[in-house]
């Protein structure tokens, strides 16, 4: 089975990912914008049992709704466990080059920088995430 190791920017935290992500996407929600300082972020979603902290300590913080975990030393946002689901969202910028292959964009109603590409752009959430599948036409 495939294993991937990621780390925070200072290398203190190391996380092992087993297998392949369930899905990968760009999130444009206002919570991700505020916590990242960017217009959107890339996320790779793994089952919770496929994510193992091998080294270092993570601290948890919440701005609006999603508890996020970051390195206790350098503050790098590493992951977020999705409340109510056995899934963990891994920050895509920590994946090895070429490993992030997004399937769609979500929460596009919050977009401050619309991205024009061939991926689906959901206003809120796709049906597979409990949403309506409503899309944005950029």
From TrEMBL:
<keyword id="KW-0862">Zinc</keyword>
<dbReference type="InterPro" id="IPR011057">
    <property type="entry name" value="Mss4-like_sf"/>
</dbReference>
<dbReference type="GO" id="GO:0046872">
    <property type="term" value="F:metal ion binding"/>
</dbReference>
<feature type="domain" description="CENP-V/GFA">
    <location>
        <begin position="3"/>
        <end position="105"/>
    </location>
</feature>
<dbReference type="Pfam" id="PF04828">
    <property type="entry name" value="GFA"/>
</dbReference>
<protein>
    <submittedName>
        <fullName>Glutathione-dependent formaldehyde-activating enzyme</fullName>
        <ecNumber>4.4.1.22</ecNumber>
    </submittedName>
</protein>
<keyword id="KW-0479">Metal-binding</keyword>
<keyword id="KW-0456">Lyase</keyword>
<dbReference type="InterPro" id="IPR006913">
    <property type="entry name" value="CENP-V/GFA"/>
</dbReference>
<dbReference type="GO" id="GO:0051907">
    <property type="term" value="F:S-(hydroxymethyl)glutathione synthase activity"/>
</dbReference>
<comment type="similarity">
    <text>Belongs to the Gfa family.</text>
</comment>
């Amino acid at each position: 089975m495939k294993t991937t190791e990621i780390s925070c920017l200072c290398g203190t935290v190391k996380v092992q990912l087993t297998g392949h992500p369930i899905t990968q996407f760009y999130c444009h929600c206002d919570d991700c914008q505020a916590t990242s300082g960017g217009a959107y972020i890339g996320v790779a979603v793994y089952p919770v049992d496929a994510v193992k902290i091998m080294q270092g300590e993570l601290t948890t913080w919440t701005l609006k709704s999603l508890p996020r975990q970051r390195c206790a030393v350098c503050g790098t946002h590493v992951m977020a466990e999705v409340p109510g689901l056995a899934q963990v969202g891994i920050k895509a910028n920590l994946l090895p080059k070429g490993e992030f292959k997004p399937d769609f964009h979500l929460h596009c109603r919050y977009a401050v920088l619309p991205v024009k590409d061939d991926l689906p752009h959901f206003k809120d959430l796709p049906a597979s995430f409990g949403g309506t599948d409503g899309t944005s036409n950029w």
